[in-house]
Amino acid sequence: MINIMDDQDEKVTQDTEVTDEAEVLEGEVEETEAEESCEAETEEPEDAQTEDAEEEAEAEAETAEEESSDDKDADKPKKKKGLFGKKEKEKDKRDEKIDELTDKLMRSMAEFENFRKRTEKEKTAMFDLGAKGVVEKLLPVIDNFERGFDSIKEAERDTDSFVSGMDMVYKQLMKVLEDMGVEVIDTKDKEFDPNLHNAVMHIEDEKYGENMIVQEFQKGYTYKGTVVRHSMVQVAN
Q1: 154-177: per-residue pLDDT in tens?
Q2: How many CB atoms lie within 10 A of CB 78?
Q3: 226 near 132, Cβ under 8 Å?
Q4: Fold of 183-237
Q5: H helices of 151-221, where?
Q6: How far apart are CA 157 and CA 151, in angstroms?
């Protein structure tokens, strides 16, 4: 009996020791797991932050590459391929043709305007030349009128209806010539001018100054500033 009890006590003691060892082992395992879990929790945020930083850096690098490629594309002239490029070339050719035709039109208009002005100037000159010839042919008629009036006394001009009528015709003719631009060259108290006067006689007289016109033998006329006939005069000194 005593031996059996002793054996039982030993078994109980052994079981207790085993149980204590198991508990100790379990405590150690739990402590180890807790430490590992703490370390994992500490490492996980660091790894997450690192991954986020790497992702942001990659995104920024991609954005910079895209911007640089966009800038290069903007600097390079855009080339349209295919049908659109062909249309642009055709449009450029049409624009060049339009500019060329516009330039020709402007030149033609300028040449025509110059031709028109030149033609008008020539027509005016021809008209003036023709009118000058007509005036020149009328001057002897005017001279005859004046010679006829010089031979008639002043009293007879008012009493004779024929003379009065001729005087009216003479005045009307002179008014028409004046309106056309015909003017009589003035010689009274004027100095001799070879551009306007024709000296046919020369006298020495102290009463007059040098190269002064003394007498007029025939009237001179101008048409629009151009001499039609020089005045025939006598010059003193």
Answers
A1: 777 777 888 888 889 999 999 999
A2: 8
A3: yes
A4: Nucleotide Exchange Factor Grpe; Chain A, domain 2 (2.30.22)
A5: 154-159, 161-180
A6: 11
